[in-house]
Amino acid sequence: MKRRQLLKAAASIPLLSRMEWLRLADARAEHGTSNQAFSRVRPGDATWPSEESWTKLGHAVEGRLIQVNSPVSACREAPDSPACHEVFKALRNPYYIGDHAGLTQTSGWVGAWTSRPSVYAVAARKTADVVAAVNFARENKLRLVVKGGGHSYQGTSCAPDSLLVWTREMNAISLHEAFVGQGCEKAQPPQPAVSVGAGARWLAAYEAVTTRRGRYVQGGGCTTVGVAGLIQSGGFGSFSKKYGLAAAGLLEAEVVTADGVARIANACTNPDLFWGLKGGGGGTLGVVTRVTLRTRELPSFFGAVFGKITAASEAAFRELISRAITLYSSQLLNPHWGEQMRFGPGNELEIAMLFQDLNQRQAEEVWRPIREWLDASKRDFTIVNPIKVVAGPARLFWSPAILKTFSPNAIVMDDRPNAPASNFYWAGDRDQVGQVLYAYRSAWLPVSLLKEKDRPRLVDALFRSTRHWQMSLHFNKGLAGAPAEEIAAARDTAMNPAVLDAFALAICAGGGPPAFPGFKGHEPDQTLAHRAAGAVAKSMGELLKLIDQPGSYVSESDFFEPKWWQSFWGTNYPRLAAVKKKYDPDGLFFVHHGVGSEAWSADGFTRVGSGQGP
Ligand SMILES: Cc1cc2nc3c(=O)[nH]c(=O)nc-3n(C[C@H](O)[C@H](O)[C@H](O)COP(=O)(O)OP(=O)(O)OC[C@H]3O[C@@H](n4cnc5c(N)ncnc54)[C@H](O)[C@@H]3O)c2cc1C
Question: Are 442 and 553 in contact (CB under 8 A)?
């Protein structure tokens, strides 16, 4: 990027200092990323690796090189066959999807991307497999892609014509009583921790740490999300208002960088890489093979509050929104409470909150006033599902046996024959399994909007947003109200600092069942998609009017996010770009709207100089 262009860009991005942007430009110029012709190789190109080269790679990874096929491809020729129907049925099971190299948890996004398999995958079991794959991709100019749990909404863990590093089988878990990071012997006291293979699902980590050991590790809410992907996103779980970002709990990672070296990254060894991994976005700095996370004391109780209410008129709905927001600011904006309230068309409020460290009686007390008010206002409201509070021993929260007995509707089991009995996912995530997205927008809402004088504006904007689409407030995905030490730990990550004083992440999204363009009978519904995208944009637009510098969570955001570098990382982007330049100077690791992606074509195959980014 030329200096003049850069100054223009800097002027339009007030949050980043001019100096920071100039440093970024100098870094680019020094490395010579501008206008260099460089294209990666595709099958059919003269320089695509020979059969012999692939065979050699296969030997190097002890047979774990596989040709990737998507089970969906069977439907191209025979869309009405029973086999094809079976595949589409199976695409509603996240464990089935997760066990296929050629599938991802989102089947695509209309107008953005479609899930398509790589040509080959290294189904890595150990670090040496990853090293071999990274070296092979670099030496042969291949498009490299990394997949763990496959939950990327933005399609960043799949790419046609690529080599995939698939970490699914790198899922060992071990607990430590007194962990000290390599090189940190003099700097850090030993602490309880858990080491988890990059491809493990969060459910496995919770089983090991909470169900079996009676401790807590901060991870994600969805049980089938991959551990390393979430950590690199920043990562929120239901109880993040108490325990902070998942990334902030990272003590150490092992990472294979673009030069094929397996490095340790922690606060004492490669601290810049360590910082970048904490929220800098997956698939950009290297392949993480293992993470070590701090574990905490488990509270006595976890619990949930559910309910659904509809208002008989718009005026009553405004009042309901106002009561809900007032309840949130006065009683729920603290480390006890997380998860969601959803405000929807049809004047509907859905409550799906989780809490920690309160017993049943204490939690009931918090909700008593709003219940009493609703009971006294029967003419204005229909209680579709009464507000119900349930608390139980925290240690049993992820125990499928207990959930099946006491809360069978809250979970869905992996229904494949011979599936491990422990495989379950939350029923609340069911609609997202295998879905094709029509639209997805998110924005952090500053806590200042909860001030008494600003609350009416927030209530009004929420009401107006629901005239178009459902708006969900994910309270656990903003750190305002969290303990000071968790906010300080989050400040030391690469995430957009907007997360620190946000009380919630507002998410507005729409999608349909699994669908793939060109597959007769299984095509995405373009009309619905178009309508949903328009309505979601209008709905989020109402909230965006309230925010000066909107920030968005990299992993739960719009594929078409305009100033993505600013939205996802804010003032941290130049520092992240410098880390990228140091550890991946030639851009081996590319993901859509990832750090450094502005230097590449949309498919990650061609270097386009300075790109369209900052
Ligand atoms: C149904 C659903 C529920 C979700 N719930 C939550 C939630 O509760 N909280 C939350 O914070 N987020 C949530 N997310 C977002 C999710 O955390 C991110 O998409 C996360 O990055 C997924 O990680 P993954 O390994 O499952 O996905 P993948 O698609 O496999 O990976 C995501 C990104 O990380 C990269 N990556 C994966 N593994 C590695 C590795 N070992 N080394 C380097 N790069 C790697 C991939 O290349 C890709 O770019 C949810 C997503 C879905 C679809």
Answer: yes
Q: How many CB atoms lie within 10 A of CB 475?
A: 26
Q: What is the pLDDT of residues 392-422, one digit of tens each?
A: 999 999 999 999 998 899 999 999 999 999 9
Q: Which of 147, 429, 557 to mutate to test the pocket of ligand 1 (most atoms within 8 A of CB)?
A: 147
Q: Give the model's confidence band at 10: pLDDT under 50 very low, under 70 low, under 90 confident, else very high.
A: very low
Q: Which atom of ligand 1 is nearest to the CA of 105?
A: 53
For residue 168, report the distance from its CA to the centre of ligand 1, in Å: 13
User: For 295-349, how does the pLDDT look when each residue is reduced to its tens digit (9 = 90+)?
Assistant: 999 999 999 999 999 999 999 999 999 999 999 999 999 999 999 999 999 999 9
Secondary structure (3-state) at 608: coil
Q: Are 470 and 441 contacting, i.e. CB atoms less than 8 angstroms apart?
A: no
Beta strands in 33-185 (DSSP E): 65-67, 108-109, 113-114, 120-123, 143-147, 162-166, 173-179
Residue 228 CA to ligand 1 center (angstroms) comes to 7
- List of residues 6+ apart from 536 with CB closer than 8 A: 438, 439, 440, 441, 468, 469, 508, 509, 510
Q: How far is the CA of 495 from the centre of ligand 1 (A)?
A: 15
Give the pocket of ligand 1 (CB within 6 Å).
105-106, 146-153, 156-157, 167, 198, 220-222, 225-226, 228-230, 232-233, 235-236, 282-283, 287-288, 429, 432, 555-556, 591
Distance CA 546, CA 217 (A): 35
- 527-537 exposure pattern, b = at least 16 Cβ within 10 A, e = fewer: eebeebbebbb
**So what's the pLDDT on residue 25?**
44
